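Please check this.
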Amino acid sequence: MRKLGRSFYCRDAVTVAQALLGQYLVHVTRGVARGGRIVEVEAYLGPQDRASHSSRGLTPRTRVMFGPPGHAYVYLVYGVHHCLNVVTGRAGQGAAVLLRAVEPVRNVTGRTQGPGLLCRALRVDLRHNAHDLTGDELYIAAPARAPAVAIVRRPRVGVDYAGAWARRRLRFYLHGNPFVSRP
C-alpha cells in the first residue's frame, strides 16, 4: 500500500468521495496499525451546501475545513459520537468528505457501520482534528491492486434540515458491501 499524497485531496469533494471508496483508512497507535477499507462516504461541497458545517462560515469549529486539503476534520455529534471528515479542494473552499463506514481489515474490533462507530473502532477522536492525513499516525492508503467497484449514489443521511440539499445524491457506497451503514 502507498499513502495518498496531498494532490489526491486537492480535488472537488464529489471526485474525492468516489475515489476514497476502496482505499484504506489506517490509524497507528502505540505501534499497532488498525485499518479498514473505506466502503461508504458523503460529500459536503462547501458554504453553499446547506448540509455542510461550512455553510455557517468560518468558525473555530470549521476552521480546518477552510484550510489546506488532506487534513482531518473531526467533530463530536450529539455530544457522544466522533465523526471523521477529509478536507478536500483548495484552501478556503470549506469542502470535505465524511467517512461513514469501513470494512475491518486489520486489528479493528467493534462495529464500523456508521461514522461514530467507525471512529470508536479505529480510536479516532477530537485529538485528531486538523491532523495531516499525509503523516504516519492517521492516513489513507491505496491498495497495491484496486479491484473494480460498483458505486451506488444516494442522498446523504440525517440532513433533512438542509432543504433541497438533503435530496442531492452525495452519499456514495460500494454496491453489495455488508459493512455499509444503510444500504
DSSP finds three helices and nine strands in the chain. The mean pLDDT is 96. The domain at 2-174 is CATH 3.10.300.10 (3-methyladenine DNA Glycosylase; Chain A). Strands lie at 2-3, 24-29, 32-44, 72-77, 81-88, 95-106, 138-142, 151-154, 171-174.
